[in-house]
Amino acid sequence: MGLRTKFNLVLLVAFLVGLSMAAALSYRIIYDNARREVAQEAAIMIAQATAIRGYTTTEIKPLLAEQMKRRFLPHTVPSWAAQTNLRAMTAQFPDYTYKEAALNPTNPADRAADWEADIIAEFQRTTTLKEYTSIRDTPAGPVLSVSKPFRITDKDCLSCHSTPDMAPVTMVDLYGAANGYGWKLGDVIGAQIVSVPMRVALNRANDLFLVYLAGLTAIFAVTILLLNLMLHFVIIRPISRMSAIAGEVSMGNVAVPEFATQGSDEVAKLAQSFNRMRRSLANAMQMLEP
Q: First CA to last CA across the chain, in angstroms?
């Protein structure tokens, strides 16, 4: 095995080890950045929904108070207003969803699915938990969900949701007396859940990861090419010429020209020593001649 082959094998092993370490570290960083990007999108949707809820409570509900005495208007319900407004956005971006899921909702459409019920149960188990992030697999790819609990902290909520007898008659007429009652102060009855697809962010992260690996590979290819050129002109070619001269001298041809030396590096010093040895050998052979 030649010097060039050994040199390239060592470089190749070093590159593969370095590339593996760099790939593992960079993929984790890129994946985490993609997850943060998706989580930020979810946080913006929750903030938007919360703003709509606040506006409905402070601005819309007082305006419709008189009409509510004759007919229940869901437009005054913060949950209904937030979900209706964001539903217009999710119509354009169907992979993005916002839902105010409840275990016992007034509107059956708000009833929590199994995975949503698990999130609500997590809030019920951990009373100090203010936000919960989860990832679930779907046929369209992984989806990140950011959730915030709905905890009954306002006694006014119980005027509609404690018992059907206490609730507005117009609300009972619209939704019935079977759902949305029995709520208690301090209970977690549901959660704001925003679901954002990770597919786009992960595809972008994978593309960036491949570009990064391709860049490292290109840098390695250029580096090994330059090193091989240097190895050839600085080490291999001079040594090959010295080896050829040594072979001629060993066969008795002392008339072969000396190796021309240039510079002051280690190869040049080796060449100088080789030339001195060659001259000494030539002199010794001349002295032995009759």
A: 43
